[in-house]
Amino acid sequence: MTLQLLLTASRILTRPGTPAEDGAVLVEGDRILAAGPRAEVAAQAAPDAEKLDFPGATLMPGLFNAHVHLTFDATREMLPNFLASDDAALRAGARERLDRLLRSGVTTVRDLGDRAALGARVRAELDADGVTAPRLLTAGSPLTVPNGHCHFFGGEVADDDAIRTLIDANAAAGADVIKVMASGGQITEGGADMWESQFDVRALRLIVGHAARHGLPVAAHAHGADAIEASVEAGVRTIEHCTWMTGPQRQDRREGVAKRMAAEGIAACSTSSRNWRMLAERMGEDLAKNVYGRLSWLEELGVPLLSGTDAGLPGSVFDDPVGALELYEWLGFGRRRILEIATEDSAAGLGLGDVTGRLAPGLSADVLVVDGDPLKDLSALRDVRLVLARGSRA
Ligand SMILES: [Zn+2]
């Protein structure tokens, strides 16, 4: 018989939109048995259930980070450090970073690019060692063109056969999602600029179709407006960055494309870390509002948003989810919406809406206990009292 765990606190957000005073969550094994008003939930607990009470605290679902790179160390030298490290060192670093994510309240993580299926190997190691860790979805080696964006992850594909072979290999190695570098990016010398496409819509369709044969969704890295449009046309599930660039300091937000994303449930991941504040100061208020304002615009058009920070890139640390979420507050999003994006919306966008992202019977016991009330002040999320990841205590 698994011992039950009854958590009680001054308030509960079974979902951010339904706050209630005096709540409880009853957990058995890795599942939530009940969540809601304290008296109702406590009445269902077995007499020998372990009880933990958190006066003044809030019970809520664990947070998401839908875009990280666990094999990058978030320093300025992250790329040379990555290139100079052997697989064992990268796996050790990834384990340490997953632990940071967990302790900061993140219970679901999506890694969108590493080499040699290291993420999947780390996941298997953690399972075998019985170590508490966030749920980890991994992409393995992202598809890119020869010498293209992030070619050092080992995902260069020169033709259709190579595309199919790499997708097969990623799937066999345990990938949960196929990542394609639809446009150029910032951290790779040479190759396409950020706003230039690396794959045309025909190749992207082939990628989406072949990934679907393995039951896998496709995440497209796309800064360029053309790359975003082609990716949406091809049927990817998420657009990473989604900056609508057409040149240096130029963007072209395409309303028709965004409306199609909204209609088809194609989510956008901002990939903004706590660096946004420094970047905004450097850019100046007007330019910053224009660059980050794409998120408000996507929200108005009904495009699902995912919380993800590109953790691992310089300054994008693994243990400050709040610093990243504060961008949305600066843009004028309400705190309820911000918490929804960080929990249930990200779950739905990653196809995990029936698994986690809310506190409800039958869902995974991914529970965060923070001091204070994050609906009144987001920084309450910094005061983590307890994290349960699939029922297991951090
Ligand atoms: Zn990334």
**What compounds sit in this structure?**
zinc ion
Per CATH, the architecture of the largest domain is Alpha-Beta Barrel
* Low-pLDDT residue intervals, each spanning 5 or more residues: none
What is the element string, with H for helices and E for strands?
EEEHEEHHEHEHEHEHEEHEHHEHHEEE
Number of strands: 16
Q: What fraction of the residues are assigned to beta strands by DSSP? A: 15-25%
Summarize model confidence as the mean pLDDT: 97
CATH class wording of the largest domain: Alpha Beta
Helix content: 25-40%
Protein name: Amidohydrolase
Pfam families: Amidohydro_1
Domain Amidohydrolase-related: 58-384
Keywords: Hydrolase
Protein topology:
Layout: E1 4-13, E2 19-28, E3 31-37, H1 38-42, E4 50-61, E5 63-68, H2 78-84, H3 87-103, E6 106-111, H4 118-129, E7 135-138, H5 160-172, E8 178-181, H6 201-213, E9 218-224, H7 225-234, E10 238-247, E11 250-251, H8 255-264, E12 267-269, H9 276-283, H10 285-300, E13 305-306, H11 321-330, H12 335-349, E14 367-371, E15 384-389, E16 392-393
Parallel strand pairs: 1-4, 5-6, 6-7, 8-9, 9-10, 10-12, 12-13
Antiparallel strand pairs: 1-2, 2-3, 4-14, 10-11, 14-15, 15-16
Helix pairs in contact: 3-4, 5-6, 6-7, 9-10
This protein binds zinc ion.
